[in-house]
Amino acid sequence: MHNRRRALVAAALAAGVAMALTACGGGGSGDTTSVAAVIKGLDNPFFQSMEKGITDRSAAAGVQATVQAATSITDTTGQADKLTGLAGQDFDCYVVNPISGTNLVQGLAQLAAAGKPVVNIDSPVDPAAAQAAGVQLATYIGTDNVAAGRIAAERMSEILPDGGPVAIVGGIPGDVTSGARIEGFTAGLTNGVTVLQEVAANWERQEALTQATTIIGAHPDVKGFFAANDDMGLGIARAVANAGKTGEIAVISVDGNPDALTAVANGELSATVAQYPYVIGQLGVDACTAAASGASLPAEVDAPVQLVTKDNAQQAIDSAPEPPTPYDNPFATQ
Question: Which pTM does this prediction carry?
Fold first, then answer.
């Protein structure tokens, strides 16, 4: 029954997008809307899933989609070059998933000058930089990262009812997404759980393993780790296992990648706050379709999230890459 319900919801959403396509008669071939998407590096499974969401939704809705990705999740210049190249082509709408808040601004300024609608997904474009470049985004679709961090903090506080020191491992220093998750986590801690140390591991598993190994060696009383993404969380889990403390030191991360869901089911990770990049990609296409038709879109749309623990890990695995319950799609009827 659950799978049938999700199938019906997905069919309804696709039908809504198809209706918008018929109404808009946008660019591309005949009445087909054309969408160009520039996303982060496909070296991370999160963005692989996002790409698949974009291509699957486009195929289902009859949208002509071109997706280009940075060579890695730190390739800011390369990603900017991708957008600049696509900006010179006549797509009806553009979807951008910037590595930093400012690295795509030059290409976005070109699109603004050409009057092309732009949908921002997952990582926000810096508002001040966008305003200075004359860029007005059609909408932003992404996780409420402060809320995601707070959910992780609530779970950490439940796991450690007697309190204790925990460490935070963030992504790239200054990154907006990492900062928001850390902000939410720090603010959400209760029960005497305190932050012992905060370090950066540049979103990388091996670097997080190294950082966590150092912290565990220097602070054997550490009770838990919060990682701003799953790859780093899995690196920390390996460090905890190497120290023989699996089950003694809690590790909570954010993303809900397949490896992390399995690790939660196996007890290697205490929890992950699952995002759904596949859904974010789908919503990006739906929003672009609506924007190309001239529809007025909400300024921001929160993508679905779910706390995954050992109790519901199998349910999350079975429903991936979509959430186990229906989600709101404000673009389906635009």
Answer: 0.77
